[in-house]
Amino acid sequence: MTLSTDQQTGEDLYDVRLRVNGVVHDLRVPARRLLSDALRHDLGMTGTHVGCEHGVCGACTVLVDGRPARACLMFAVAAVEVDITTVEGLTHPDGSLGPVQQAFRECHGLQCGFCTPGFLTTITAGLEENPDPSHEEAREMIGGNLCRCTGYQNIVAAVERAAVLRREGQERP
Amino acid sequence: MKPAPFAYHRPRTLDEAVALLASEPDAKVMAGGQSLVPLLTMRLAGPATIVDVSAVEGLDTLAVDAEGVRVGAMVRHADVLASADVRRVQPLVSAALSHVAHPTIRNRGTTVGSIVHADAAAEMPVVLAVLGGSVDVVGGSGRRTIAAADLFLGLLESSLAPDEVATSAWFPALADDAGVGFAEIARRHGDYAMVGVAAHVDATAARVGYLSVNDVPTVVDVTGVDPADAGEAALAHLAPGGDVHASAAYRAQLVRVLTARVLREAHEHRQSRQGAA
């Protein structure tokens, strides 16, 4: 990766190529740029939210090669050679809501919506691994994400509803 | 807060990584980053250089045979936990891994990274210690194997030299006449434990390891002690502290209760394995 220097701060900058939602982005960032900040500030993709910024709350969860990861616990310079999926990448190609998003709408799975992007990415990957979770498995699936509004009941319901929507979507020709 | 500025290197070979560690003063190795990045973000750590070993060839191998489990430095917790071979050969590794943070963190965090991070509140250092495993490292002065007993020096301090990088950890297989147990009590599942206990018993010995009790993962020999009394006996070697999560007296009580519970679990595990054999 090529080095250059930020004229204002004197800080070294790195040329980084990120693949986000199937699109290649080239950006020039300092090594300390968190992936969460690179997505939001450098790429303008503000769907990924930043809560605690030390890996506890789960709001910034994105998918790295399909597996959930905290964007606040990765540096953009290290997020190369992988496919990153953000909440913006969860909609259908025609712009309509994906199954997990649709389930959150139907089940009232969000109130303020701050934590929602992290839940949507986590559940999308969770259902990929376990397409038909039990109630207990649905609760476990979201155990690493914090929500301060809903009390989680409707989010668990949304996991179960999303599993149904997902199967129906796959059955459609 | 944001991390302080640092220089970033992404070597492709171990030689390159070791050369960087030798030439760059104040360099720190990063694997999965799940412990290091929060420290950087909170500015509890501020290395001048980070050597990211995630692209180094040959560190992502998980090898299981009759002798034991060898975990390469870039093998993620999630992949060790998912391995049926690991669970069969050394079930204590799998039992403890299910308590390591949340699945999302386990997807990135590495088992070897967690061990050499040497956090006394972490599960895998204690598992390595109670099983008598080891860590292989390579540095400017060549390769060496560090036994678990010599690995943990203090709070977040391992015996790796600044120019050394851990390449793998080795957990010996569970012998036919042995059993293991693991339990911890945390405020929330996935949080750091207030106390965690790992036990290994066989025909001649019983060892119990403790996390979140002393400054380093601590193993106590309780051979011949009744499980009900073993916690009290172990407390002679432990100095449970008090903090916002648990008082010292409560931690001591957790040591008593969990030691008895985990030792019984290990004895039952041993009996069930002998019954099956």
Description:
The complex is a heterodimer of chains A (173) and B (277). Chain A has 173 residues and is α+β, with helices and mostly antiparallel strands. Chain A folds into two domains: 3-89, Ubiquitin-like (UB roll) (Roll), CATH 3.10.20.30; 99-171, DNA polymerase, domain 1. In chain A, 33% of the residues lie in helices and 17% in strands. Chain A contains five helices and six strands; from the N terminus they run E-E-E-H-E-E-E-H-H-H-H. Chain A has helices spanning 35-42, 99-107, 116-129, 135-141, 153-171; strands at residues 3-5, 12-20, 23-29, 61-64, 67-70, 83-85. In chain A, strands 1, 2, 3, 4, 5 and 6 form a six-stranded mixed β-sheet that branches. In chain A, strand 2 and strand 3 form a beta hairpin. In chain A, helix 2 crosses helix 5. The longest helix of chain A has 19 residues, at 153-171. Chain B is an alpha+beta fold. Chain B has two domains: 1-174, Uridine Diphospho-n-acetylenolpyruvylglucosamine Reductase, domain 3, CATH 3.30.465; 179-276, CO dehydrogenase flavoprotein, C-terminal domain (Enolase-like, domain 1), CATH 3.30.390.50. In chain B, 34% of the residues lie in helices and 26% in strands. Chain B is built from ten helices and 14 strands. Chain B has helices at residues 14-23, 36-41, 77-81, 84-89, 91-97, 103-108, 111-117, 123-131, 227-235, 248-276; strands at residues 7-9, 27-30, 49-52, 62-65, 68-72, 134-139, 142-147, 152-154, 157-158, 165-172, 179-186, 193-201, 206-211, 218-221. In chain B, strands 4-5-10-6-7 form a five-stranded antiparallel β-sheet. A four-stranded antiparallel β-sheet of chain B has the order 11-12-13-14, sandwiched between helices. Chain B has a three-stranded parallel β-sheet with strand order 1-3-2, with helices on one face. In chain B, strand 2, helix 2 (36-41) and strand 3 (49-52) form a beta-alpha-beta unit. In chain B, helix 7 packs across helix 8 and helix 9 (227-235) packs across helix 10. The model of chain B has no long low-confidence stretch (mean pLDDT 96). Chains A and B meet through strand 5 of A and helix 2 and helix 6 of B.
